[in-house]
Inverse folding.
């Protein structure tokens, strides 16, 4: 089943979601919700989807980065982003810690802000403590693009959207990005768009 994706302007995207109770996690309702979120993320397509994005005020997100999504990317583009395939998994009730002081800047988009993207600085490395879909505790240490996805999705669970963290002057349509900026470096784009 596919679920409609909520767009910015709805309160659910701006609230702290509630933690799932241990006995809820393996319930039929939550298992079905996870399956529906997985299908919705695939169809979108996206590399992550948080429950508030389908209108549910729950600390739950699904993540998966497939080779297909980057098949047109060069080795250099993938290496710069430290982007690798990530198998499907579920994060529940996460606690995120940013590690180190290294930040990286890349364009980011969101299924709840159709057709827009912007340059967003993010910590290069994070540690996430959470539960998986079986309710088992997990510790995820991630860097590069995976760390970015985790920060983006966990932000959603606490009412934050990437536009709260972006360089506002770099917000653009996907069409304009492809037409005007695809071959430019992040530093060059920031400079030309007047980011101080
Ligand atoms: Zn998003």
């Amino acid at each position: 089943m596919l679920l409609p994706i909520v767009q910015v302007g709805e309160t659910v995207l701006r609230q702290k979601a509630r933690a799932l109770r241990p006995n809820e996690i393996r319930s039929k309702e939550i298992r079905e919700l996870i399956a529906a979120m997985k299908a919705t993320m695939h169809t979108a397509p996206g590399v992550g989807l948080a429950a508030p994005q389908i209108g549910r005020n729950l600390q739950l997100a699904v993540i998966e980065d497939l080779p297909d999504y980057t098949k047109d990317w060069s080795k250099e583009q993938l290496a710069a982003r430290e982007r690798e395939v990530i198998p499907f998994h579920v994060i529940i009730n996460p606690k995120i810690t940013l590690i180190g002081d290294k930040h990286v800047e890349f364009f980011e988009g969101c299924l709840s802000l159709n057709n827009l993207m912007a340059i967003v600085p993010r910590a290069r490395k994070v540690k996430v403590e959470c539960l998986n879909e079986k309710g088992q505790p997990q510790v995820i240490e991630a860097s590069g693009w995976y760390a970015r996805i985790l920060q983006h999705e966990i932000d959603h669970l606490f009412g934050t959207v990437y536009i709260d963290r972006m360089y506002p002057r770099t917000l653009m349509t996907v069409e304009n990005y492809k037409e005007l900026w695809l071959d430019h470096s992040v530093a060059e784009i920031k400079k030309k768009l007047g980011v101080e």
About this structure: The beta strands are 48-50, 60-65, 86-109, 116-131, 137-143, 172-173. The mean pLDDT is 96.
